[in-house]
User: Fold these one by one.
Assistant:
Number 1:
Amino acid sequence: MCTLNTFSHFIDRKMNSTLKRNILSVSILLCVLILSIPGTAQTPVTPPREDHQFWNETQIVKHLNEKRDLVFIGVIRLGRDWHRPVDERAGLGYAFKVNPHLTIMPTYLFVSYQPFPGRLINEHRLVMNVTGKFSLRKFTFTDRNLFERRVRHSNPDFTVYRNRLQIDHPARIGNFEFKPFIADEVWYSTQTLQGKDAGWFRNRISVGILKQFTKHFYGEFFYLHQNDGVSRPGNIPVVGTLFKYTL
């Protein structure tokens, strides 16, 4: 009996010793892994020069009267080669028609975007949208001017001016009526980069179709290419949609 007790104590001591060694080995391994994580997370990320993206904008328009509309705006953009959201926006605009050829819409937007890993920008945009429109035969010319004041908490505020000229023309394929269009937009910014204003820094050219599906539902489908020598990513090929629902 004494021999059995002695053998039992010996086995217990061996098992306890082995268990302690295993626990110690696992603890050391976990410490090494945990300590290695910050080094991986802090690896510098080189901002990409180009990114393929998908853009969608949805507007819900509430008619107040013949000349005034309330416009709710939501935007989401998928980037990093369509793998994840990189730009989310929400806002409200108040549009009023000065005359059949001129519409003015002051707008507020909250924008949160993550152009590449490790970079997050949140900003408030105060936008004045002044859009003129006129027709020549069956061609419609739309000239949109945006004056944006961008307010950021961690960086100096600055102003961006954007001018976009669009030309469209009605077309038909069978019973499908639509308007193909081409547009070009240039950007000017007062943001200070490397001691000087960014100036005229961006151009966007786009082609697509406009379609009034019903009285209350309108859509745009387009391909856009952005060239930008300042931002990263700056050169962005885009497939996009815009949907407008009128209440």
Note: The helical segments are 2-41.
Number 2:
Amino acid sequence: MEQDKNLPVIDEIMRQFAEETGLLGERKPQRYLWTDAFAVCNYLELHHRTGNEEYRTYALDLVDQVHHVLGRYREDDRRSGWISGLDESEGEKHPTCGGLRIGKQLPERLPHEPEDDQLEYDRDGQYFHYLTKWMHALHQVAVRTNTPVYDTWARELAVAAHEAFTYQPAAGKKKRMFWKMSTDLSRPLVSSMGRHDPVDGYLSYLEMQADAPAALQEEIDEMEAICRRWDLSTDDPLGIGGLLTDALRLVKLEKRGRPVLPGLLENLLKAATAGIVLFSGQNSLQSPIEYRLPFRELGLSIGLQAVPAIEQYLKKNTARSAENPSGRLLHQLSGYSSLCGMIEKSWLHPESRRSVAWKTHNDINAVMLATCLAPEGFFGR
């Protein structure tokens, strides 16, 4: 099978990742929430394709390690223990109810320190869009291993994140979101609002509510209100890919009978289509390799691979068949499918992976390349 030819490459990438980040062996664990969320899904997919229990163990061990590293204060922090403030015993039972650190190299900005937009990208804290990726990863573990506690932890993370990141700017105004919060979720570090955070949160909450109908309804209602008439436009390849994977999550929810915000699918596809037209017009994939950002391009490739699955759903769903705008947008998006091969070929080349562009963010680039070669793990089966 075409997909199986990639197994040796994916296996090599994910075993090397396990060794280099301390999941295996004697190295000190180096955890980073975004990368680890994709890695968990990759290990689950490898287990599905091969039946090798070793991969399942990697996925579960990685979840445990993330919670024990990123669910606790850094070693260089004056505080210690679980960032939720729970004691050791309760923290073990509820490792996500205080959120999870990003895993950045530098400690978070202290209250008295001046803001520095450039430095902030290297500082720790919590990002909502990283937390939603971890919610999704935990949900995939719960489904694939038939272990409900992972969904419980995902929902507890959702409650903590929603309470901390959303706020009402004034009486009568709909809620907004902070982009970055402190490690203990007590104060915003970046007050602007992430463009795709509301839709990521909305779909993540719905995904988790599918197996617990009474859960997260207040959070869903508030996030839906933020999503209404919200501008999703972007020409960032990673952002475009995220819009398309969110569109696939949406149609999967509809397939399960979950009601979603009317018009949201079309809005996701419109923004993705406009974005990819802009991105492709920049010809950045023709730039010298050292000027490119692998994980952002790979995110686009992952999203484009969701397009056929969305098209298949719309063709089968009679209620959706009359939605010509969505069908037309998907047809237009499918015309960019060749970008997937271009991106994969670029970053599978050994010389490209010896470049500074690759090595600067080696772990995230490698894990997302593996996801690109086997996206079903992240999409969910």
Note: The two ends are 18 Å apart (CA to CA).
Number 3:
Amino acid sequence: MNGQIALLGSGEYLPVMEPIDRTLLDCLHLNGRKPRVVCLPTAAGTEGDASVDRWISMGLSHFQRLGADVNGVRITNRDEADDPLWAEMIAEADLVYFSGGNPLYLYQTLAGSKAWDAAGQAWGRGAAYAGCSAGAMILARYVPDIRSIGMKQIPAFGKLPAESVIPHFDRMKLWRPMILTTARRRLSGDQFVLGIDEETALVGRLDGEWQVMGRGKVYIIKKREESAFSDGQIVPLAQ
């Protein structure tokens, strides 16, 4: 993954996130060509057509306002994730954007698929990746099932050095305060969990700096310590 990455705690396709998405688009080197954006509602694949249609419509409207050539990639199950037509569209994209939903379903649908291979091809030539909530969680080493007792973990794509990513972090601490306790209990040494507040993003590259953008904070949570970073601050993601 050579391109820019944005990990969003919430707020995909909303006006509050326009500065973040403009940053992603501005980092592309397109020689005056319109950026090609693909919006994938895959994480909402079990929520029904109305939810999927809403995410696609929001993505189209949002990126059209930003001057992009944007398409909704309607991948909601494994068969669609292996459709070569969708894979070709993803491989040719300049920004691959995953909206939120169920992170376990998103990972299980994409793992080993033609769509995920195509996303890797896009990143390999410098395309950007944006993942909101579930779309951010699948890049960590594990996806925590926050709905399960004990918060079991499923191995994920492991692109980030974080053990897991917890989006909606400010709300999650109020809704499920034991999540942080459970996550910390599993950590050892320099292992860490990444927490991202709502309407907040961590933007950077795997081999470079990461910066907080948005109204909230980003947290690096270790077993016995926690560091918080606000808008504009650099986060030492590489451990």
Note: The mean pLDDT is 94.
Number 4:
Amino acid sequence: MELTKDQIQEIIASRVAKELHNGDVVTLGIGVPTKAANYLPESVKIIIQSENGVLGVGDYQDDSNRDECVINASGVGVTLNPGGCFMDTLMAFSMMRGGHIDITVLGALQVDSEGNLANWAVPGKFIPGMGGAMDLVVGTKKLIIAMEHTAKGMPKIVQKCNLPLTVAHKVNMIITEKAVFEIKNKELILKEISPYSSLEDIKATTAAEFKIDLN
């Protein structure tokens, strides 16, 4: 069964949501990570932090609550949940660097078997800078990478990243449409196989050695 892009994103985002628990302070990166909040059950209430200085990010704005001054780090209009607040850049980055974010979920260009992350630059393409990702990944208590398993048929989980690193040895979990991996002591461990994949498929599309622990 060949999945559409929307189906792939739904599978990844819904699985990420299972890692988010009541009271967690969470930063969700651009794209698929942001969608994870849509799959939280009503009983789970998290506090979403945006690096531009919003704590308690709610739903996206619609025509009934348009306010161009309230945006997330991607410049998208958002609402503020009850109890939410705004802060300056100093406070926002102090939260990120100071270990006050429980879980950060980001996308990636590559992740390797030692927990190294490359998600900001492709050689030969102009990129203005790494941005707040370098602060998020160093300060967060848990770093989850939510991404498609391959890009243009090429594996994104590799033995060793060959793209510029965002951070070394900090990734704790990788969630794709095919599998869930954990990284412990610089070892890649397969923890779950998606109903839409198989062990043979994962081996064929993962360019890294991994252990298997499906218990």
Note: The two ends are 26 Å apart (CA to CA).
